[in-house]
TrEMBL record:
Protein name per Swiss-Prot or TrEMBL: SYPL1 protein
Organism: Pardalotus punctatus
Keyword Repressor: no
Subcellular location: Membrane
The keyword Glycoprotein is assigned to this record: yes
Membrane-topology annotation of the record: Multi-pass membrane protein
Length: 241
């Protein structure tokens, strides 16, 4: 229904439309649909995450009290705070402690790219389905598609590895290693124990989707390249005596 609605809207707004859904069965169209789907999953698995880190605290007048710092996309951990475990702030020895690190740049790079790719895939599919005759007749369109595909493949490569490094740092900054950095836990009579942190399996999946996008867009570059006159020229050169 989505594609029929999209075609109806475009046909009402743009002349020269020749809707042909058979293009979706061709490698170029089918891969674009997969890229569209993977962009959604990459966006959702990273951008929709929310977690928390929990400590077990004993201090003056308080025994085994849990405190929690909540963090979420875009992972500005330095804004996530462990509030005092009791109204008296452990007899005045406790000050609110923050997680360390700001990993918003790597996370937002990854999610923003996924969003832009999502919209580009929709645009490309509109062209493939409704204006394939124009696409095939004017070689400027395949060349433009090729240039954009190369750029997107490169950006997926960079953003995925940057995000993978950011995710590793997020795990480090929300795990048991945070306790030595909390000054309030060093106060006399105060003990802090790491209790738990939300599983980040869904964020691991987002990295996997990033890797799949790299592979898929690399294949897309080859498919688009075959539609350009660059491939035809190279074929004629290689076949000439």
């Amino acid at each position: 229904w989505f594609w029929f609605l999209l075609a109806a809207v475009v046909s009402a707004m743009m002349p020269g439309l020749r809707v042909d859904f058979s293009m979706l069965l061709e490698p170029l169209g089918f891969v674009k649909v997969l890229e569209w789907i993977l962009a959604i999953f990459a966006f959702a698995t990273c951008g929709g995450f929310q977690g928390e880190t929990t400590l077990l605290v004993s201090c003056k007048g308080v025994v085994n009290k849990t405190i929690t710092a909540v963090f979420a996309y875009p992972f500005r951990l330095n804004t996530a705070v462990f509030s005092a475990p009791d109204p008296k702030a452990c007899g005045g020895t406790w000050t609110d402690a923050h997680l360390m690190g700001n990993f918003s740049s790597s996370a937002q790079f990854f999610v923003t790219l996924a969003a832009l790719v999502f919209f580009y895939c929709i645009t490309a599919l509109v062209v493939y389905i409704g204006y394939n005759h124009v696409y095939q007749q004017n070689n400027k369109f395949p060349l433009t598609d090729l240039a954009i595909s190369v750029l997107i493949a490169f950006l997926w490569l960079v953003s995925t590895f940057v995000w993978a490094k950011g995710l590793a740092d997020i795990k480090e900054s929300t795990g048991a290693s945070i306790i030595p950095g909390i000054e309030s836990c060093k106060a006399p009579g105060t003990t802090c124990h790491f209790l738990s942190v939300t599983s980040m399996g869904i964020l691991n999946v987002s990295v996997v989707f990033g890797l799949l996008n790299i592979i898929l867009w690399a294949g897309n570059v080859w498919l688009v390249y075959k539609d350009t006159n660059l491939h035809n020229q190279w074929s004629r050169i290689s076949e000439s005596p």
